[in-house]
């Protein structure tokens, strides 16, 4: 699912370009941590060219802010060298690269290239990337979890244990593939910097903000099924390809891989005020593509309208759960 349906392209009302402010705030919150990580841990031979990859770049301006931050950090690390930067913007082949590249900063200090493909697979030649970065992307699964009936639900919240296990197993496989691919591509002493939505250890999925939102989305779809707008069978067969891992799950996969040292792994809470409001735009920009493919455009329009009507109820529920959490991870290639 994640391979086929990226974020909404273009610059319309429900585009990712206009609805990625939460992701930007999350990325901005670790800006200084990223600079510190590069300053203290980047330990590779730097020639005249530095290759940087942003994995899951999407279409909005966030990726450009991140790239500029990375370039600034590397330049501070090597102030006496004249460096050229090659930046690779990666996302699925269906990503709106036209919008992405038409909005490139005109005064940028790097050469830009697009690399279509799944970051769960190899994307670059061996030992060719100095720093790889990914923000708000690796909680997407490569496909829907399979093999566990999940009747009347579209996610693992309040689902049978077998469904939660299917989600966890799929995530561990996908993260393992991601780390293995980067292990081939990152130079010795190079870095992988990750920030993504996660769940604190010991916090049940029922207390995760995103899981609560997915639960409401599922309830609205079931209302449409009861109204005869959509087949219930389609809902039963659908699982959102998103999973919010715990710190323990992430660490276990990375350490099992063995290619990287875990330099830093820290749970942060960048915007607790997200709980006091619910805006349909960011939610729709991220999920509309996958939902349209499974249920059709007319159904998706109706389901988001239902969620908007229930926005006050959603906010009240969000106030009762834990703050939105993200995990910041720094990996160094051995």
Overall description:
The chain is built from eleven helices and seven strands. The chain is α/β, with parallel strands linked by helices and 334 residues long. It has a seven-stranded mixed β-sheet, sandwiched between helices. Helix 5 packs across helix 8, helix 6 packs across helix 10 and helix 9 packs antiparallel against helix 10. The model has no long low-confidence stretch (mean pLDDT 91).
- Count up the domains: 1
Number of strands: 7
The run of helices and strands is HHEHEHEEHEHHHEHHHE
Judged by helices, strands and strand pairing, the structural class is: alpha/beta
Helix content: 40-55%
| Beta-strand content bin | 15-25%
Mean pLDDT: 91
CATH superfamily: Vaccinia Virus protein VP39
- Arrangement of strands in the largest sheet: 3-2-1-4-5-7-6
N-end to C-end Cα span? 32 Å
The biggest sheet, with number of strands, parallel, antiparallel or mixed sense and barrel status, is: 7 strands, mixed
Figure out the total of helices.
Answer: 11
Low-confidence stretches: none
Using only C-alpha atoms, the radius of gyration works out to 20 Å
């Amino acid at each position: 699912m994640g391979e086929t349906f990226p974020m909404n392209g273009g610059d319309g009302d429900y585009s990712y370009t206009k609805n990625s402010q939460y992701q930007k705030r999350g990325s901005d919150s670790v800006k200084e941590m990223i600079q510190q990580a590069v300053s203290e841990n980047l330990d590779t031979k730097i020639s005249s060219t530095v290759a940087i990859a942003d994995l899951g770049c999407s279409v909005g301006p966030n990726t450009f802010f991140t790239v500029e931050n990375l370039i600034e950090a590397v330049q501070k690390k090597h102030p006496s060298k004249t460096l050229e930067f090659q930046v690779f913007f990666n996302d699925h082949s269906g990503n709106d690269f036209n919008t992405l590249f038409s909005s490139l900063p005109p005064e940028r200090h790097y050469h830009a290239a697009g690399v279509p493909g799944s970051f769960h697979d190899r994307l670059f030649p061996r030992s060719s990337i100095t720093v790889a970065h990914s923000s708000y992307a690796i909680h997407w699964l490569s496909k829907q979890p399979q093999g566990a009936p999940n009747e009347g639900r579209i996610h693992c919240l309040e689902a049978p244990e077998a469904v939660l296990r299917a989600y966890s197993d799929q995530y561990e496989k996908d993260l393992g593939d991601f780390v293995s691919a980067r292990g081939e591509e990152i130079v010795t002493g190079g870095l992988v910097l990750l920030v993504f939505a996660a769940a604190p250890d010991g916090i049940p999925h029922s207390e995760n903000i995103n899981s609560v939102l997915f639960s409401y989305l599922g309830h609205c779809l079931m209302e449409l099924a009861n109204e005869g707008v959509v087949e219930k069978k389609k809902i039963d067969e659908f699982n959102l390809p998103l999973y919010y891992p715990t710190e323990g799950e992430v660490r276990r996969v990375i350490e099992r891989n063995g290619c990287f040292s875990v330099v830093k792994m820290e749970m942060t809470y960048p915007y607790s005020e997200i709980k006091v409001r619910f805006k349909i735009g960011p939610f729709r920009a991220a999920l509309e593509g996958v939902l349209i493919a499974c249920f059709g455009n007319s159904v998706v329009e109706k389901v988001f309208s239902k969620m908007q009507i229930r926005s006050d109820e959603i906010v009240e529920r969000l106030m009762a759960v834990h703050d939105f959490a993200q995990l910041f991870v720094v990996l160094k290639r051995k």
